[in-house]
Specification:
This protein is an alpha+beta fold and 302 residues long. The protein folds into 3 domains: 85 residues, Uridine Diphospho-n-acetylenolpyruvylglucosamine Reductase, domain 2 (2-Layer Sandwich); 113 residues, Uridine Diphospho-n-acetylenolpyruvylglucosamine Reductase, domain 3 (2-Layer Sandwich), CATH 3.30.465.10; 83 residues, Uridine Diphospho-n-acetylenolpyruvylglucosamine Reductase, domain 1, CATH 3.90.78. 31% of the residues lie in helices and 26% in strands. The protein contains 9 helices and 19 strands. The strands form 6 sheets. The protein has a 5-stranded antiparallel sheet with strand order 6-7-13-11-12. The protein has a 4-stranded mixed sheet with strand order 1-2-5-3. The protein has a 4-stranded antiparallel sheet with strand order 15-18-17-16. Strand 17 and strand 18 form a beta hairpin. Helix 1 runs antiparallel to helix 2. The two termini are 22 Å apart. The structure holds flavin-adenine dinucleotide. Flavin-adenine dinucleotide binds next to strand 3, helix 4, strand 9, strand 13 and strand 15.
Length: 302
């Protein structure tokens, strides 16, 4: 690790390379042990250099945004975490086109769309992630998804080149894309929105915000919906029907407010969350015959 740290400091700068950085500081679950190295590049060139160095030295790497869909192991991550977040988050608007760097937060983009009287992005205004993470997950809510507004994405390939990929080639489906299997890192995106009435846009965002506040346990750390929505059903409903509202393993709990969320009541460990997920999966299958699949990404050894 010593030699890679030196190489990374050389390209990114000492204050942007953290050693043994606790991942609990970078995930909305507030869970996760130390990453060997945590890199925060300031430019696309620096991000490409981090990837090149990792590949040359045979060190695993993993990209994160806001960490809002991640469960990181208590043992952390052996390798380099590359964070694309506020460090790479420029947004520009030209007519009905919004061009963003991958670290831009969806909430900030939604606010910018509103300022420009652009409609089509209201659905994403309350999703607490970066656009990079949202593209990878084809994030969606309240009848909208990234697929509806994306035009193209700029990626860094595993070979270290950049490429512009039209949305039709991303194979966006329910909470999936080809990006992870191709080993791409999202650097930026171009979105196509439409002119709309600012008051209507504002009212829709406010309505969706109120629905989240009413239904979701936003006062406790979580990673949002823990499970994918099973075909023709809802994970939260199946979990509730299995009698698991409030079911806990240590400080990990099926939310009392919304059974689709697992929340961290204070000092939950990744192990506890994992055990809870396993137990919920077994009991829901016994009760309904449906096998739930996690939506949350697991990182590290479990
Ligand atoms: C309270 C709450 C509510 C939520 N509500 C919703 C919702 O309504 N709808 C929804 O879809 N999701 C929801 N989520 C989940 C989450 O916010 C989204 O999945 C979000 O898009 C993840 O973005 P992120 O930047 O946090 O990604 P991260 O959690 O950091 O990463 C998620 C995945 O994307 C990859 N990734 C991240 N950035 C990049 C990049 N630049 N290039 C390549 N890969 C990358 C990571 O490797 C990882 O596999 C919610 C989460 C919370 C905590």
């Amino acid at each position: 690790m010593c030699s890679i740290v030196e190489s990374l400091i050389y390209v990114v700068g000492e204050d942007r390379i953290l050693v043994n950085e606790l991942m609990s500081r970078h995930t909305t679950f507030r869970i996760g042990g130390p990453a060997d190295v945590f890199a925060v590049p300031q430019t696309v060139g620096e991000a490409a250099a981090v990837v090149r160095i990792c590949r040359e030295q045979g060190v695993p790497y993993y990209v994160i945004g806001n960490g809002s869909n991640l469960l990181v192991s208590d043992e952390g991550y052996r390798g380099v975490i590359l964070q694309i977040y506020k460090n790479l988050s420029e947004i520009s608007v030209d007519g009905e086109t919004m061009t963003v760097q991958a670290g831009a937060m969806l909430s900030v983009m939604a606010k910018r769309a509103l300022e420009h009287g652009l409609t089509g992005f209201e659905f994403a205004s309350g999703i607490p992630g970066t656009v990079g993470g949202a593209v990878v997950m084809n994030a969606g809510a309240y009848g909208g998804e990234m697929k509806d507004v994306l035009e193209e994405v700029t990626v860094l390939t595993g070979e270290g080149t950049t490429a512009t990929v039209p949305v039709s080639e991303l194979e966006l489906g329910y909470r999936r894309s080809v990006i992870p299997e191709r080993g791409w890192i999202v650097l930026g995106a171009k979105l196509r929105l439409q002119q709309g009435d600012p008051e209507t846009i504002r009212a829709r965002m406010e309505e969706l915000r109120a629905r989240r506040v009413e239904k979701q346990p936003l006062d406790l750390p979580s990673a949002g919906s823990t499970f994918k929505r099973p075909e023709g059903n809802f994970a939260g409903k199946l979990i509730m029907e299995a009698g698991l509202r409030g079911f806990s393993v240590g400080d990990a709990q099926v939310s009392e407010k919304h059974c689709g969320f697992v929340v961290n009541k204070g000092a939950a460990t990744a192990k506890e969350v994992c055990q809870l997920i396993r137990e919920v999966t077994v009991r829901v299958r016994e009760n309904s015959g449906v096998t739930l699949e996690p939506e949350v990404k697991l990182l590290g050894e479990f």
